[in-house]
């Protein structure tokens, strides 16, 4: 059964006249008759009662027409939805981002963008770097805001640097280092470490920093969010390397700048080279590049 057969049947059923239906469809009468006959053969029943050029739906035809009308309606709605999703003014952007970017950066970017494009909608996805990139590779996400660094970027992933964020050594209030103005990372080399789970961008970054400082970290607890890590530090379960983050209880946790090595993470925007971006997603990508005055790497 072909889509064209359904269209021909619907028009013929509405007009109940072969000649007028053929004229409406801009095809010959014999071609229309053959199409209807093939459809009836495939279904195994007649759909019309025939009286010369005039035809009337029988009970099978009436039942089938209800289904065909639904199919045609869904088809037209699908066309409309796709048109809206791919419209630069009314489309949708599927955006992935790290948990640590959720409270401030992402809401502010979306607010500014929607001031220019108020009808564009967003699907938001929070997770760790690897999960976001995997979902982006699968086509579920258009763009990712991650801590991905240039040397970590697979060949098919394009990446634009946006900004750099300082990372701090977090210690509980009352810790011997808590009142220090700054510390060296190797000063906490013998401390129990609270870190992020494997696969998280900050875990990879902090592991590299500990290696640079000559430390074999004793990771005693792992978490998924900065607030969880900070809470474990506040409870005296270890120290951590984390960004300054809205909502950290500074009466329970001290964030100490690191004198050595340089402790920062790069925030970037990633997308898949060659994957289709809707006009709305491309508008948002260009908006981000303008906001940060950045270049594509």
General description of the model:
It is a single chain. The chain is an alpha/beta fold. 40% of the residues lie in helices and 25% in strands. The protein is built from nine helices and 13 strands. The chain has helices spanning 3-15, 18-25, 29-43, 59-85, 105-116, 129-137, 201-212, 226-234, 279-292, and strands spanning 48-51, 54-57, 92-97, 121-126, 143-146, 157-172, 183-184, 192-196, 218-223, 240-243, 253-256, 258-260, 264-272. Helix 1 crosses helix 2 (18-25), helix 1 crosses helix 4 and helix 2 (18-25) crosses helix 3. The chain starts with a helix and ends in a 5-residue tail after the last helix.
Compile the SSE list and pairings:
Blueprint: H1 3-15, H2 18-25, H3 29-43, E1 48-51, E2 54-57, H4 59-85, E3 92-97, H5 105-116, E4 121-126, H6 129-137, E5 143-146, E6 157-172, E7 183-184, E8 192-196, H7 201-212, E9 218-223, H8 226-234, E10 240-243, E11 253-256, E12 258-260, E13 264-272, H9 279-292
Helix pairs in contact: 1-2, 1-3, 1-4, 2-3
